[in-house]
Amino acid sequence: MNLYTYSGIYLADNQKLLIPTVNCNGLFAISKANQSQYLGIFNEASHPLAWMIVASHQIDREIYFFSFYQFCFWKFNLDTKKMEFVEYYKCDESFLVTNVELVNNQFWIFSNITTIPILIYDCYTGKVSNLSWDCITDHEGFSITKSVVYENKIFFATRKINNVQLAIVDCARKNISYKPIVDAQNIDTLTVYRDEVWLLYLHNNGKTVVERYNINDENGLIIPLEDSSIVLNDQEIMYYQLIMYNNSLYAFSTKDNHILKINVKNANTKKIVNHQLQSNKKHMSEFVMQSIQKVENGYLIYSPNLGYVQLFNIENEELKSLNFMIDSSEIDMAYNTLLANGTQTLLEKNTDDMEYFFNHVVCKQKINEEYSALIGYKIYNSL
After folding, report:
1. How far apart are CA 108 and CA 123, in angstroms?
2. What is the pLDDT of residues 335-355, one digit of tens each?
3. Prediction pTM value
4. Averaged pLDDT for residues 94-123
5. In what helix (H) or strand (E) does residue 250 lie, and over which residues does it extend?
6. 6, 303, 349, 356: which has the fewest Cβ within 10 Å?
7. 357 half-sphere exposure, CB direction, 13 A CA radius
8. What is the 3-state secondary structure (H, E, C) of 162-197?
């Protein structure tokens, strides 16, 4: 079965990928030889979709997997192979965890509503503190971009029509400051390189621009892009993340699986496309990029809609598909473990996976009436 995931982490010491897959509630290890191993489930959470993982981080021999839908994480020990569930904050509001950054053994956790503060989890003490969003008072339509860590600071942009701001969180001083981007209709993404913030956004004049902002200077330099066919809008975010390399910015698309190369010297642009995926129109229309991890030979790209992980070699500008597969026996083990634990995360909104479950999984335990009703409810919502 193909592998679908929002997030993952590459372990350089044994050259394995740890993948919390959305095929089912399960953690899998994938080796370079394309051998899969089922490691366990993300259980004990109260939200039925808490096992959807938004971010994966490593501290020594422990991997932290953070939930999208609940303020919790699972800590997996690479030596003991044991999984520990931790709920670090309780909240009755409906929310999504969007960004999780690790700075000096503290996790900084951002959600999509500002009535919930920025949460700070200390890995040593297990204590949680928080940081107010400060001057943001109008919460409707609020969201933030992908965040970037640079010299103990976290950079991101707030997205709100007529109120786009560059936000800088000082992790040492535990404060947040804002710089209005007055000419921006909507900001897509940003990166930080050598004391400079680079922002890609739609200007009020309708042009897509790159703005360079020196952290130590109040003035920014706006660079209009030569290719006027690049269009961003506030309804559909097209570029998810920026990376600077050799005087060029690489903007990762969320729509049609291309990487836009922007030469910051002359504003020329070039598209780098995965031709293998280009022929798959179904995946082309559904492509969503969720997580990117820097590795020795490039960047690993994790997306829930592809069915595989991609490797972008930035030096030769090649985009390669890594067609990892999960063994059917491992999937069977995962589904049977779900039933044995009575978890509420059995089926997803993927009809192929549901069909696989009913056709292939042999369960020794009789499903009770309450759980049968849950299955029917999930099938109904997936149609």
Report:
1. 11
2. 778 777 654 444 444 444 444
3. 0.82
4. 94
5. strand 248-253
6. 349
7. 20
8. CCCEEEEEECCCCEEEEEECCCEEEEEEEEEECCEE
